[in-house]
Amino acid sequence: MTEEQSTQDKRTPLYDEHVALGASLTGFGGWQMPLRYSSDLAEHRAVREAAGLFDLSHMGEIHLTGPQAGAALDHALVGAASKIGVGRARYSMICAPDGAVLDDLIVYRLADEHFLVVANAGNAPRVSAALVERAAGFDTVVDDRSDATALVAVQGPRAEEILAGLTAPGDVEAVRGMRYYAAAPATVAGIDALVARTGYTGEDGFELFVPAERAVELWRALLAAGEPLGLVPAGLSARDSLRLEAGMPLYGNELDETTTPYEAGMGRVVKLDKVDEAGAPLDFVGRDALAARAHSEPARVLVGLRGEGRRPARAGYDVVQRGLDGAVGAVVGHVTSGVPSPTLGYPIAMAYVTPEVSAEGTRLAVDVRGRAEPFVVVPLQFYKRA
């Protein structure tokens, strides 16, 4: 990254906190973000064994309010947002008319006529613009509050204990009893927050949406309360290895504008049978293209790969037929993400491969600097918490 790029990147409200903690910073999605504070391995293990604290303030927060907010989202996204219960959340996608994924999202329903769409950092401006365009004609207001909102996450087996210790007595029960993919307002460290129980690490955890001007106060309170319980600040590197172990896709790696939800194994989020309030079939952006692909075999399939050696696969490496004595065979796909798994002790990767080699147990290889390193196709969730 050049100095010119670094000066153009935006900074979250917690930037000075990261600098004070000695974080290594990197450009990500147009933002200066902490890559690591201590070591990738230590931060990864802290999340698996205790807890990690993440700055996610680079994500986009776009609110839709009004009588037809749900209908507007039904038209704009592939899922049925209007069917989400108040206080619940759902994973969804926004697609182009040709079915290509523009971004993957989490949609929260905060009230009957109030939805929150959380978009990935680099895609947030275009998601906001697309929602404004697609909501035209509906009785709803689209309000991008990304710059006014900070988002931090506490992830790990001790996340609930840490958060509950800072939560106002009247809200503790709501936090402790919160279901997965749910959200509710709560006062945490004296700050009014929207608390959600989702996550991107494969562990239990919470996300806290607060006004940007209260971010530092919340961050410091969480660090102080969590440190005795093993919580550490964690950067993008640990976040990436954690989400990969959990088999969660990353936009720009597994998802992009050349990919449909079906190729990515996410066809379940596409609701082709959506209907309006009168029970009539409901059209949405990309529906025709996605319907045409729903029952046809994709040209490539996203799979998990488990390494049988020690050398890891990396994004962009070729997946090949396994040859004799380490020889590189015919190319059958490409790696999208890969790391040596700190939790499992062997290399793991996600890759797009041709359908004929996508079955579980298929023995393949990855071209690692001219040598065919052995891998086998496995289910796409490498790690499951107890």
UniProtKB/TrEMBL annotation:
InterPro entries in the record: GcvT, GcvT/YgfZ/DmdA, GcvT/YgfZ_C, GcvT_bac, GcvT_C, GCVT_N, TrmE/GcvT-like
Domain Aminomethyltransferase C-terminal residue range list: 300-384
Record's signal peptide: none
The entry's keywords: Aminotransferase, Transferase
Catalytic activity entry: N(6)-[(R)-S(8)-aminomethyldihydrolipoyl]-L-lysyl-[protein] + (6S)-5,6,7,8-tetrahydrofolate = N(6)-[(R)-dihydrolipoyl]-L-lysyl-[protein] + (6R)-5,10-methylene-5,6,7,8-tetrahydrofolate + NH4(+)
SUPFAM superfamilies, alphabetized: Aminomethyltransferase beta-barrel domain, Folate-binding domain
Pfam assignment, any one: GCV_T
The EC number(s) this enzyme carries: 2.1.2.10
Chain ranges of the GCVT N-terminal domain: 14-274
Domain of life where this protein originates: Bacteria
Family assignment from sequence similarity: Belongs to the GcvT family.
Listed PANTHER family: AMINOMETHYLTRANSFERASE (PTHR43757), AMINOMETHYLTRANSFERASE, MITOCHONDRIAL (PTHR43757:SF2)
Assembly description: The glycine cleavage system is composed of four proteins: P, T, L and H.
NCBIfam families named among the record's database cross-references: gcvT, PRK00389.1
Task performed by this protein: The glycine cleavage system catalyzes the degradation of glycine.
Protein name: Aminomethyltransferase
Organism annotation: Isoptericola cucumis
